[in-house]
Amino acid sequence: xxxxxxxxxxxxxxxxxxxxxxxxxxxxxxxxxxxxxxxxxxxxxxxxxxxxxxxxxxxxxxxxxxxxxxxxxxxxxxxxxxxxxxxxxxxxxxxxxxxxxxxxxxxxxxxxxxxxxxxxxxxxxxxxxxxxxxxxxxxxxxxxxxxxxxxxxxxxxxxxxxxxxxxxxxxxxxxxxxxxxxxxxxxxxxxxxxxxxxxxxxxxxxxxxxxxxxxxxxxxxxxxxxxxxxxxxxxxxxxxxxxxxxxxxxxxxxxxxxxxxxxxxxxxxxxxxxxxxxxxxxxxxxxxxxxxxxxxxxxxxxxxxxxxxxxxxxxxxxxxxxxxxxxxxxxxxxxxxxxxxxxxxxxxxxxxxxxxxxxxxxxxxxxxxxxxxxxxxxxxxxxxxxxxxxxxxxxxxxxxxxxxxxxxxxxxxxxxxx
Length: 418
Ligand SMILES: Cc1cc2nc3c(=O)[nH]c(=O)nc-3n(C[C@H](O)[C@H](O)[C@H](O)COP(=O)(O)OP(=O)(O)OC[C@H]3O[C@@H](n4cnc5c(N)ncnc54)[C@H](O)[C@@H]3O)c2cc1C
Description:
Elements: H1 15-42, H2 47-56, H3 61-68, H4 75-86, H5 88-107, H6 110-119, E1 122-123, E2 126-127, E3 130-133, E4 149-153, E5 158-169, E6 176-182, E7 192-197, E8 204-209, E9 220-231, H7 239-257, H8 268-301, E10 303-304, E11 307-308, H9 313-341, H10 350-377, H11 384-391, H12 401-413
Parallel strand pairs: 3-6
Antiparallel strand pairs: 1-2, 4-5, 5-9, 6-7, 8-9, 10-11
Helix pairs in contact: 1-4, 4-5, 4-8, 5-8, 8-9, 8-10, 8-11, 9-10, 10-11, 10-12
The site of flavin-adenine dinucleotide (FAD) has 21 residues, from strand 3, strand 5 and helix 12.
């Protein structure tokens, strides 16, 4: 397909995008994929792989920022797809900090982004990680139920954070933690704000580290906040903006109490999720594509009844459906990413659509891949077993599939569907 002068529409990647894609693919094939089984078994953060990525400039703020600001929007999806094609656990260990940095970019001032984002990555000689802590034991899908409190101490111009966060990627081992907390609980999700917890702040500790079904090279843990004091400037967006936002939220709450309809307002956690959903969808595309490729190759070479198993329509059609759904997922991801980078609002929750479809596709495709590999697919001798375990996360984190459907349905109808 080539550029059409009439519409300017193209799905061709430009030279820079092709170069980045091929470079990342090489890293994923040569470094990530060969290390995947080992780190999955060890269930530890793959520091040597992250360090290698940092040396090459892949694990760096500059690289992710460059991809983020690709005007077509495709820089991040291409990056995610290639790294996660290599392995989802190691992929998340590499991009987890970038997802946390999105929390700063989505809610912080330019000064805050300039101060904290570089510290989230460190340097190639001294690599650092970052974590985004929103979920709590009793506030997963129901973000408004968050109990972690942030109380302002005017005397010292500090915020005091107390609570327990859970499921935090890089939680406790991160240099910089971004914590979402409730400032005014009566306002629910509208009364929340995001805070930076700088490195070494007393009172922040790691709780339980989870042993997981998949993406086991990515560290997931509880983060306990016990009287954590952070300077006033660690409130993302600043106090003035927060006070204005809270005042508007109080007015809205009062209007709603009178039975008036009000406009929807975004809260701190939602702003982060909305920005990162297509990127997470792209990760799922990478996992699905990896499993599909293994299955296609296997089906072409494995012989039963004197012919390759792909000679049977039952197998060939499964592969046709797998590839079709993967390509459809990628197109949804690319559309949402293009919209996001071109100032087009998600009027039909296109970000959620992309994450929903790609996540479900990854789970389904990796399951089909196991079936095509038969007994071999069920063993750890072949990578599809791991890919299937990894894919399961894509219908859960960054908003479950049910929550994505809820967001889409609410956006389409304008109704508070439950
Ligand atoms: C490996 C991993 C990494 C993670 N990383 C992070 C991170 O870095 N930072 C962070 O803040 N969080 C993180 N999370 C948390 C993740 O976002 C939550 O697990 C997710 O939002 C779901 O919350 P929950 O687990 O409490 O499930 P619940 O909210 O308890 O949901 C349980 C089930 O009920 C369904 N359900 C709930 N409400 C509704 C409804 N209204 N309608 C229909 N169905 C509903 C859900 O879809 C799900 O199927 C991570 C989770 C995992 C497993």
